[in-house]
Amino acid sequence: IKTNPKSWPGENGKGVETSPEEEKEKNEKFKLNQFNLMASDRIALNRTLMDVQKKKVSSIPTIHLYRDCFP
């Protein structure tokens, strides 16, 4: 699997910075879309995120938690 360079915006959950010159445009787009469109456009669709899952969570046998929900 090919991964993106770690220096790319948004990689591993890193924040995306905009320059002071872009602040006005960023704020105008935020008013229209209710999210930071400029940051969204800079983040790769296939970005890498850090695994924040606790190690013990993956070892819980979930079949026992839901066995009464299924026939």
Automatic annotation (TrEMBL):
The record's annotation in Gene3D superfamilies points to:
Spore Coat Polysaccharide Biosynthesis Protein SpsA, Chain A
Q: What is this protein called?
A: Uncharacterized protein
Q: Look up and give the organism this protein is from.
A: Sarcoptes scabiei
